[in-house]
Design a protein that fits this description.
Two copies of one chain form a homodimer.
Chain A: E1 18-31, E2 34-41, E3 44-50, H1 56-62, E4 70-79, E5 94-105, H2 122-127, H3 129-132, H4 136-158, E6 162-163, E7 181-183, E8 191-193, H5 199-207, E9 212-220, E10 232-241, H6 245-264, E11 274-276, H7 277-284, E12 297-299, H8 301-304, H9 310-317, E13 321-327, H10 336-348, E14 355-360, E15 363-365, H11 374-383, E16 391-397, H12 399-416, E17 427-431, E18 436-439, E19 444-447, E20 474-479, E21 482-489, H13 494-503, H14 508-521, E22 529-535, H15 536-543, H16 574-579, E23 582-584
Parallel strand pairs in A: 3-5, 6-9, 11-17
Antiparallel strand pairs in A: 1-2, 1-4, 2-3, 4-5, 7-8, 9-10, 10-22, 12-13, 13-16, 14-15, 14-16, 17-20, 18-19, 20-21, 21-22
Helix pairs in contact in A: 4-6, 10-12, 13-14
Chain lengths: 590, 590
């Protein structure tokens, strides 16, 4: 039997060889009594030719072949004539003269053509996902995903990590995001929860004496979805005992360096830059700064604290701040109308307005300039490194609004003005995170990361006076303005964990009911431990240069958490609910 | 800083070196003013010594140390004196003279000692799983599991398989086992199902043009549990396009050969023996024969079809059969009382009784011997290869009962009589499976494997006359009497799939509602494809030489599907149910 070859892997070395090819009809052309087919398999394309002088039989069969038919051919690899060489095809100097053709399966005309890029709606693409996935960029993305998975595993295996599987049917805990619940049939009225992360299990693995654990783990959050969220997602989950924060960060740097080398052929510099959370907010208005471009926020609060411009002075006086962006050289590029649009944009983030100045002929112009003293104008020019032709944009508000609005505006302008070098992969550690976050609606503190995060040395002493100032032994890895993942050292002493639950407002009973098993486990020689979890789908999105998380997941869900291909979720038989002792409260009871 | 070493990896080459060790106190002994501690980490044990002449300070601290404390020590590796060498410890020729000791965490006295084997109840072991997992055999099992996972991946990666992730929140279909359901909050009254296997998704992956897929996939079945079942389990899931049944089986053989070599250091012969389903049932009374020992079933129906022994004759006349086991040389070992116990055993499997004969002094004795003609006795002796001293056991019944009861009896006797060579790994393919199975309770045929299994050539022609005789292009891989997994070619032609649904009693509407997406996908150029799924937990159980599936799963569930460590499943907040628009029908409505 003739040996099977892959279409895209044929080279001039195969010329003269008899090959067996199997794949899909990408395109068919009839020309001068011949039929030409671009045959596609997982490796790529090659042109096959049906010629009456070679096999009238194959030619006759080929006549019935249409796009996306599955065929098997045997034939001889030949060089194309000079004039018919196709530079756009990797195998474009070759073709296969077909001797035999079998049609393995037919195809209806696909609802869209499987070109590299297509402008069909995402809804159609998801409904016919198996067709969408046949397109080259999708094939490449999932091959990249496979390669990245293996590169990560290879690194961790070499470092003596053990890959371990944690349960999917776990206990529901009210902290964190909303759980997906799974009703128990054996214990009616009780539920499992799908894991939001294997956090507690990986800590228990450390307490079980396995020193280095990893898992490429499926996690679940029943939250309202945005473009970069999916109800089920994959994370690279890592935990180690006896390693310091530095050890863990350094190891992750080596892992990323190795992965970027293997997968993208890039040599990225290590160690990664580090920035404290407070500094990141102050300079970028973001806890995940995109450092591929500058245009940082400048805090001018001190300069304008007594300003004649009431908006500036007022913000500082009421405990907020004034920060600005210097849009270099764009004074004349932005009309008043353009700036109005930017003002509308920052309002989305709660800003009441956007003040602006233009640097022209060595002075600052614009509606607010008349309120600024010469000293203030000078101070601003110095602080913001102002040159003629620059556009300055300011938000004066409470601190969180200043950061949110200017952080978002910075990113918007960075994209609009093409300031971002898309070939860069800028990794960054953000460290020294707050331990707790205050929820104004609920009037209590929450764990900024999770309740098992180790407070920084001495932090717990601030517990009564300034809980918001407590810092955590936590670190986030940021890539190109995306949070790739976060980690921390964990609490390993039972008394500290108790204090932490207390700080979070748990009664002893509540802590015990939800986390009693953890409190107990900590009492039997829990080792010092810590780890990290990295969002794998998002990492692939960045590596593949895509901007939609759904393009990195084989069978993703829509924004309403539906699978348009299989039509999940769906109604189930009444008998299934009866077995679970459940009733639907939105339907009439039968 | 002193370099960290692993306890179990210290060798005589380290003598004289200063080392840093971190781990758990396995055991502490006080002797002649010294303290000896067996220190344990993930790599094993080493003895550390506290000596007042080396560090009175460390000795004083060591006095407070108890079992399972987590400590960090620095010290010098020295050779033990000849008389104190411990041959039971891998590092038994060495010890570490401790200079510094830090206690990293304390431990209460564990509820059981962490010896290699312990006789505590499984309930206690599961509740304190993190302690149970510290025991050496458990550590070894999960290291073996990790190694096996990587060996499988390495093989499949080299064969150009892509590792791909399929969804966990999928559509519920009534075929197969009972689904775990996940209520949707966004679509009240609708449910996802956790996958029983990624079967349809892996077929869709083939239709997406990825030619070779694998996944080490978590699967879920809400069934009543036995010792070798868990509500969530892991399977090695494999699917390929364009490969024949032979290609797939041969590849799996190479995979298993490679894995057994890497993980167990064993060279297992390939190709694996193959046996048709009908032959396996006839010779072993089982579709997963344990071929590590003989004692096969012998069908003597023809010999006794006209027998004076009514029970034999009657079974054959009513369409059943008579088969027997020859328990070689055990005639005198089994008293009448022993045989009564075996009779009780076969009754569990529906047999009405167990007939027996003993071969003594060239003739067959026993209560039924007087009913047998000389010709029959001769026939039996010949067919069953009878020698003096043999014990013959017979069941006469309908065929399924004969197989079930004698198959089980064969295994029981094999174990009791130590006929099984426990060092053997006997792989076996069972092929030519029935396509359909009749469910007597429901009065209809079911897919023996699943509704997507390709019928054998010509099988569908028997669809109206003899549906039970239709065979499938299916193959099971059996190891030492366990079903390791099963696979098949799949239906890739829409018309055949339609016929299959019809054979299974689906109306067009039912087929469409449940599998409409598959029927549609098949119309757009589905390639010929097939694959296999192997039970990974069970494979590890066999590789680790254990007999409880729970010992191969890090955090397993009990027979009532509970996690005794975290106490899942559990009740959830009323508010969670409200969001899902669910009510518990076994509680009063509030």
């Amino acid at each position: 039997m003739t040996e099977r070859f892959y279409c895209g892997k044929l080279t001039e070395e195969n010329i003269g060889e008899e090959v067996l090819l199997k794949g899909w009809v990408q395109k068919r052309r009839d020309l001068g009594g011949l039929i030409f087919i671009d045959l596609r398999d997982v490796s790529g394309l090659v042109q096959i030719v049906f010629n009456p002088s070679i096999s009238p039989d194959a030619l006759a069969k080929a006549d019935s072949v249409r796009s996306e038919f599955v065929i098997e051919v045997t034939g001889k690899v030949v060089a194309r004539e000079e004039s018919t060489i196709n530079d756009n095809m990797e195998t474009g100097t070759l073709e296969v003269e077909t001797k035999e053709l079998s049609i393995l399966n037919k195809s209806k005309t696909p609802p869209f053509t499987l070109e590299e890029e297509s402008d069909i709606t995402e809804e159609i693409r998801l409904k016919y996902r198996y067709l969408d996935l046949r397109r080259k960029p999708m094939q490449e993305t999932f091959i990249l995903r496979h390669q990245t998975t293996q590169a990560i595993r290879n690194f961790l295996n070499r470092e003596d990590f053990l890959e371990m599987e944690t349960p999917m049917l776990t206990k529901s805990t009210p902290e964190g995001a909303r759980d997906y619940l799974v009703p128990s049939r054996v214990h009616p009225g009780e539920f499992y929860a799908l894991p939001q992360s294997p956090q507690l299990f990986k800590q228990l693995i450390m307490m079980s004496g396995f020193e280095k654990y990893y898992q490429i783990a499926r996690c679940f959050r029943d939250e309202d979805l945005r473009a970069d969220r999916q109800p089920e997602f994959t994370q690279i989950d890592i935990e180690t005992s006896f390693m310091s924060k530095e050890d863990i960060m350094e190891m992750i740097e080596r892992m990323m360096k190795q992965v970027m080398k293997e997968v993208k052929g890039l040599d990225i510099p290590t160690p990664f830059p580090r920035m404290k959370y407070d500094e990141a907010m102050e300079r970028y208005g973001s806890d995940k700064p995109d450092t591929r471009f500058c245009m940082e926020l400048t805090n001018i609060s001190e300069i304008v604290q007594n300003s004649g411009f009431k908006v500036f002075r007022g913000a500082v006086e009421s405990g907020g701040k004034v920060s600005g962006l210097n849009v270099k050289g764009k004074a004349s590029a932005y009309s008043r109308k353009n700036i109005d649009q930017l003002t509308d944009f920052v309002k989305i983030y709660g800003a009441k307005g956007l003040a602006w100045l233009k640097a022209e002929e060595d002075s600052l112009t614009g509606p607010i300039s008349k309120f600024l003293s010469e000293e203030e104008a000078h101070g601003i020019k110095e602080a913001m490194n102002v040159e003629n032709g620059d556009l300055l944009l300011f938000v004066a508000d409470k601190t969180s609004v200043v950061y949110d609005s200017l952080g978002a505006l910075r990113l918007k302008l960075g994209k609009e003005l093409n300031l971002i070098d898309e070939t860069k992969f800028n990794f960054l550690w953000v460290t020294d995170w707050p331990l707790l976050e205050y929820d104004e609606d609920l009037g209590r503190y929450f764990a900024a990361h999770h309740p098992f995060t180790m407070p920084s040395p001495g932090a717990l002493e601030k517990f009564h006076d300034a809980p918001g100032e407590m810092k955590a032994e936590a670190y986030d890895l940021v890539l190109n303005g995306y949070e790739l993942g976060g980690g921390s050292l964990r609490i390993h002493e039972p008394s500290m964990q108790e204090k932490m639950f207390e700080a979070l407002g748990f009664t002893k009973e509540e802590a015990n009911e939800q986390f009693g098993f953890l409190m107990e486990a900590l009492q039997y020689g829990a080792p010092p431990h810590g780890g990290i979890a990295l969002g794998f789908d998002r990492f692939i999105m960045l590596l593949a240069g895509r901007d939609n998380l759904r393009d990195t997941i084989l069978f993703p869900k829509t924004a309403s958490a539906s699978d348009l291909l299989t039509d999940a979720p769906s109604e189930v038989d009444e008998s299934q609910l009866k077995e679970l002792k459940l009733k639907l409260s939105n339907r009439e009871v039968k």
